[in-house]
Predict the structure of Xaa-Pro aminopeptidase.
Amino acid sequence: MSTHSTRLRALRDELAHQSLTGFVVPLTDEYMSEYVGAYAQRLGWLTGFGGSAGTAAVLPDKAAIFTDGRYTIQVREQVSGDDWQYVAVPENNVADWFAANVGEGARVGYDPWLHTRAWVEQTRAALSAKSATLVAVESNPIDAVWDDRPAPSLAPLSVHTDDHAGESSAAKRARVADWLGEVGADAVVIPALDSTAWLLNVRGEDVSRTPVALAYTIVGADGTADLFVAPEKMTDAVHQHLGNAVRVHDRTDFAPALGRFAGKRVAIDPALAVSAIFDAVEAGGGTAVPLRDPTIIPKATKNAAEIAGHRAASLRDGAALTRFLRWIAAEAPGGEQTELSAAARLQQFREEGGQLRDLSFDAISATGPHGAIPHYHVTEESNLRIEPGQLYLIDSGGQYVDGTTDVTRVVPVGAPTAEMRDRYTRVLKGHIALATATFPPGTSGQQLDALARLPLWAAGLDFAHGTGHGVGSFLAVHEGPARIAKPSYPGGGPQEPLRAGMILSNEPGYYKAGEYGIRIENLLLVVERDLPGGEATMLAFETLTLAPIERDLIDAALLSIEERAWLDAYHARVADTLGPILPAEDRAWLVEKCAPIAA
């Protein structure tokens, strides 16, 4: 099927064949992942949408695609308005859309392996008010019409050594076993791919840009575990690493295994596990206990080895980015570089370091109007030439065995306008305000989010995405549960207290539709801090990312004395740390870029 309109018609025919009025197509997989393998890219195949979050709703005579504020422009560029209605979230939701558009007796299908139980309950309630029914399908109708659907990856697992993990898998499983005793459960299902990777100290290559394997884990109260993974993915080294306490099963045995807990209490995270997992446990006579995955907080709270590893990764990644910034500053004014060629050159600089395993996400390489799309993804069709008068934004990161990086910088091509400098400086002021925050234990990212927005708010401006997200340790570049965001923004979620050892991004921005975008992103480590005369230990941030912040876009008159002092100290650290490992010409350029800012 060569067009997305043809694919939509084929899906409608298949729905009619299955006696369904409508169907829901989320952008996720059976593990509730943010980034999914090619085999699970059903939303992109159906609609053409290339973002990382969205949902489609299909009826016989209408269809809608739901996206948040990050994709307002992108979805209109990639998805046909002739076939699809554009619906914004969180102001609207799929359940209410169906309730408003279906007739009495309608049967709306959903794949129980792609939705949480909470979503199922909400949507079922909304449909029942219209005397319509939500129907769990046995097989996904998209798969029935997707003739060339890729197979799931069979890439082998690899061992993530204890030196890098900082703790053995046996010790981690013992902690989970202790937790099961505390909550009175017999077992816990670990559905998230990065949770299994962290718990068992293994990594994989099944999801683009995220080093995880398609697998489920069930941990028992005795600390042993059952790993469900395609047998082709197991190697002798991984078998030896896991030992006898981890029993390995074919991934297809997972659903049947859930039905063997009759009379047992099984902990399942309702935010991370799909509805089908709950259904299978209960159908087998077990009791599904909705509790948070016990690996979530330990995974997010980095230990000493993981923190040391991230520092090392930040050093080599910062050197690569600095070399790129010098290169693009010289090349861009000539008008010969494009968004794709620039992204490829940055990847090459990272690869030259010799330790890059993968990118941590597809680089957001955006010039001019594309910079105003926060999660822009460049393609051959959208690729623009970088030209004088524009701002070029590059948001990128690397996957290294000792850490995951994520950083954004903006480069002016030629002389920036006064407005560009004003907006950039306001973003920088917000970035500094968050970087220098001191706060008591128990404080959430939601409480800190306004610090990064105040300089923009003062000028009647804002940005429509979160200010910060958690980052994994050679794992997912977007890692929960902590966020720095408004509650209503993507990733805002419930308030999660920040803890020492967490790594989060600091990335306020400003976007002028059709013209340019600005974002300054560093990664922060939450640390404990005792203040002179203070009565309690507080928390604060240490900036981990090392790369110059574009001085030609700064209006120094807008910076306070304290802000200039922070910027000068940061740049001095960047120059002192990166300088010795850079080639001479790059080192000289960096020293100039990191000179103190004049008042």
